[in-house]
Automatic annotation (TrEMBL):
<feature type="domain" description="BURP">
    <location>
        <begin position="145"/>
        <end position="355"/>
    </location>
</feature>
<dbReference type="InterPro" id="IPR044816">
    <property type="entry name" value="BURP"/>
</dbReference>
<keyword id="KW-0732">Signal</keyword>
<dbReference type="InterPro" id="IPR004873">
    <property type="entry name" value="BURP_dom"/>
</dbReference>
<protein>
    <recommendedName>
        <fullName>BURP domain-containing protein</fullName>
    </recommendedName>
</protein>
<dbReference type="Pfam" id="PF03181">
    <property type="entry name" value="BURP"/>
</dbReference>
<feature type="compositionally biased region" description="Gly residues">
    <location>
        <begin position="72"/>
        <end position="89"/>
    </location>
</feature>
<feature type="signal peptide">
    <location>
        <begin position="1"/>
        <end position="21"/>
    </location>
</feature>
<feature type="region of interest" description="Disordered">
    <location>
        <begin position="62"/>
        <end position="107"/>
    </location>
</feature>
């Protein structure tokens, strides 16, 4: 269930040639945001490093789509992972327990029914989505979502952070503009990336485009950026050019473990932000949404194995327009619009915030 590398290599090569004369995404950043350091999440997506290895395959998203029926392997069951060690739910054998981890990409669900993988693509950052019981973790300590009141030194949370791996990188603005990205162009898109209609890859790509085309919730201004330049333009149009971009950084990839919030939690300046979530797609696409009802934090964490992380967290102060059946409400057992709800961001997601509060 993979995108083969050669068609994408050819596509990226043409894109690189076509954009050679244009300003590079990195130079565009330096030109528009000369005083804003580039976060690791952006640096990791700048170079088309998939061109280095012609013997491997390119999957959907970071690390891509992996479908494993689990036959003959320890643990058994069926596991579907979308987005490269992303936020996943696995209900396989032998203990049949469900686990949810904070990682790259969206959420994948596997039922293991009669050995056939059942893919349900969802994003925990799509607030109109209604989660079902298959997506609820049976481990109440798994902190995909948490309450703002718990964001203090000494608080312990079970988290899973993963290292950034090779995968979908940014196209230049010019290449992205010349590449179709709409539901009415799906046959052309599938053909361009040698994806078979009706396959898992096709479903994931279709879901990503649909999520980008669906209207946002009340008070949310949404936009899907298909290039770094377009992400910069959208974010600065909402926040101004005196901004900074932050992302989660972890010293090394680890398994699910307990992290303790260390001293030094830092709240960013303003109660507005643009949060951009990496989507599952053959090249880097970000679902960005701007709101006036968020608080962003940088949170130092330390794992039981000594791993240190600097995690970006976003707290939503108004959740009244969210779907009442959203995963966050079911996990935290609270109702829409009652208390601020927070979540850590995966390593390849980005939060844009003003450098100062409005009026300063």
């Amino acid at each position: 269930m993979e995108f083969r590398l050669l068609p994408i290599l050819a596509f990226l090569s043409l894109a690189l040639v076509a954009s050679h004369a244009a300003i590079s995404p990195e130079l565009y950043w330096k030109t528009v945001l000369p005083n804003s350091p580039m976060p690791k999440a952006v640096k990791d997506l700048l170079q088309p490093d998939v061109l280095e290895d012609k013997s491997t395959s390119v999957n959907v998203g970071k690390g891509g789509v992996n479908v494993d029926a689990g036959k003959g392997k320890p643990g058994g069951g069926t596991h579907v992972n979308v987005g490269g060690k992303g936020v996943g739910v696995n209900t396989g054998k032998p203990d049949k327990r469900t686990s949810v981890g904070v990682g790259k990409g969206g959420v994948s669900v596997s039922t293991g029914h009669k050995g056939k993988p059942v893919y349900v693509g969802v994003s925990p950052f799509n607030y109109v989505y209604a989660a079902n019981e298959n997506q609820l973790h049976d481990d109440p300590n798994t902190a995909l979502f948490f309450l703002e009141k718990d964001l203090h030194p000494g608080m312990k949370m079970n988290l899973h952070f993963t290292q950034t791996s090779n995968g979908a990188t940014f196209l230049s603005r010019q290449a992205a503009k010349s590449t179709p990205f709409s539901s009415d162009k799906l046959p052309e898109i599938f053909n361009q990336f040698s994806v078979k209609p009706g396959s898992v890859e096709a479903e994931i790509m279709q879901n990503t485009i649909k999520e980008c085309e669906d209207p946002g919730i009340k008070g949310e201004q949404k936009y899907c950026a298909t290039s770094l330049e377009s992400m910069i333009d959208f974010s600065t149009s909402k926040l101004g050019k005196s901004v900074q971009a932050i992302s989660t950084e972890v010293k090394k990839g680890t398994k699910m473990q307990t992290y303790t919030i260390a001293a030094g939690v830092k709240q960013m300046a303003a109660d507005k932000s643009v949060v951009c979530h990496k989507q599952n797609y053959p090249y880097a696409v970000f679902y960005c949404h701007a709101t006036q009802t968020t608080r962003a934090y940088i949170v130092p964490l330390e794992g039981v194995d000594g791993t240190k992380a600097k995690a970006a967290a976003v707290c939503h102060t108004d959740t009244s327009a969210w779907n009442p059946k959203h995963l966050a409400f079911q996990v935290l057992k609270v109702k829409p619009g009652t208390v601020p709800i927070c979540h850590f961001l995966p390593e390849d997601h980005i939060v844009w915030v003003p450098n100062k509060k409005t009026g300063e």
